[in-house]
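Person: Show me a sequence?

Helper:
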Amino acid sequence: MTKNLYMEKIGEKAKIASLNLSNLSIDKRNSVLKQFSHYLKTNEQLILNANKKDISNAKSKKIKDSMIDRLKLNSKKIIQIRSAIKKIIKFRDPVGKTLSSWKRPNGLIIKRVSIPIGIIGVIYESRPNVTSDVSTLCFKSGNVVILRGGSEAFHSNKILAKLFKRALKKKKCDENCVQFIES
């Protein structure tokens, strides 16, 4: 499959997922985030094994130690990722929030209300926690996300995105709310 066709398919899936996501309640979105956090806990060894592959590959490519430090995951970092998810779950629903309102002289009331952007594409370097952070924030705010992480963290990012998709499926939500570019 060509790169253009691959990206077109991802875009089409994201568009459909965005329409589905717009109908999810905050309780449903939070339940997905809780499930994702649970999967991070129960699949910790799987995540760490994927991360070991990334670290091994990075060392063989003679990548700087400072970059490898950013790439590394351990139990403590997974706990920090889960803690960040718990904090995000506690945020109020940002969708439909009235940001400001005013009354015109003719009596017309105008409101500025927050809505999801729709689909967000994120390209980022080799920090696997970004996969979790961005996915969680986008989903909480009613946005679909397409992720393109640094190649050094490919295996770590892939498993994290896969676990988020599994949480979406478990909670009967469109799995394409979070997509990971695998090339």
Q: What stands out?
A: The two ends are 11 Å apart (CA to CA).
